Amino acid sequence: MKRRNFNMLLGAGLASAAMGMAPRMAVAAESSLERVKASGVLRIGGIPDGAPYYQKSLTDGVWRGFYIDICTKLANDLGLKLSINETTWGNSVLDLQANKIDVFFGLNPTPERQKVIDFSGPVFKNSFSLIVKDGVAGSTWADFDNDKMRIAVDAGSSHDAAVGRHAPKAQVTRLKTQSDATAALQAGRVDAQCLVLVLALTLRAKNPGIGKLVLPSPVDFTTSNAGFRREDDGSWREFVDGWITTHRDNGFIRNAVISNMALVGVTQADFPEGFDI
Fold first, then answer.
1. Of 4, 46, 80, 188, which sits 20 to 30 A from 130 (CA to CA)?
2. Which of 233-236's residues contact partners 24+ apart within 8 Å by CB, and which partners?
3. 155 within 8 A of 146, measured Cβ to Cβ
4. For the ranges 18-22, 120-124, 127-131, 181-185, which has the lowest average pLDDT?
């Protein structure tokens, strides 16, 4: 899944279009595959304060993070220049739809997102977890599913959906951002915050006193995926999806994730026993 395959795929697509395109195809918008190849640039979205996924240095402007490493390799493998456009988790889907970026790594394919953009297969495995304040006991989702339990989430997120599935009886405080939910936990207004494991480990590394990490059983695994603009020609998504599979299987993606957890003070030993991305 490297440059030769990429060039062959583009050549085949252009030849097919030239030989027999229907009137509708003749006026179709340029596909993402054609745009990437013609420009020689791979446009991705980056979250400046999204460590360990993305991080932009305030001093020198250098980008770091495991999705930066992964996208850098993707661009290098295809002989493309990498262009990183600042965005937010909330705006990333809009940026894809507006054709501002060619791919965005780091989205969970929620039902609402699947209505408007397309996704790759899993880049790596994650799971839903809880940061629970001291004095609150529980090890299963059922332990947190009662009307006395107060759980904070960022509204409309996969965290929100997970709590809705597993603890529908809980008092759910839905706030604008993850940071707002964390502030509610710190202030004692809630008993727990739901986060995917990578973010929960990051939060506890920054603030060990905020509470304990609980991976409630049964474990609810989730995934981090790449998102794409929806278009008739799926060649770009299919190619990147194949590239992801190759580098997930050969261990590159796992190594990129684990090594960049150091940006937030997390080591492989901090992951729950038996959990592997």
1. 46
2. 233/13, 233/28, 233/31, 233/32, 233/33, 234/118, 235/9, 235/10, 235/13, 235/31, 235/33, 236/31, 236/32, 236/33, 236/36, 236/102, 236/103
3. no
4. 18-22
Count of all residues that appear for the chain in the document = 277
Using CA atoms, how far apart are residues 240 and 163, in angstroms rounded to an integer?
Answer: 32
Distance, in Å, from the CA atom of 246 to the CA atom of 242, rounded to the nearest integer, reads 6
Angle at 208 between CA 207 and CA 214, to 5 degrees: 115
Q: How far apart are CA 136 and CA 114, in angstroms?
A: 36
Count of CA atoms in the C-beta half-sphere (13 A) of 121: 11
Model pTM score: 0.83
Question: Which has the higher per-residue pLDDT, 143 or 15?
Answer: 143
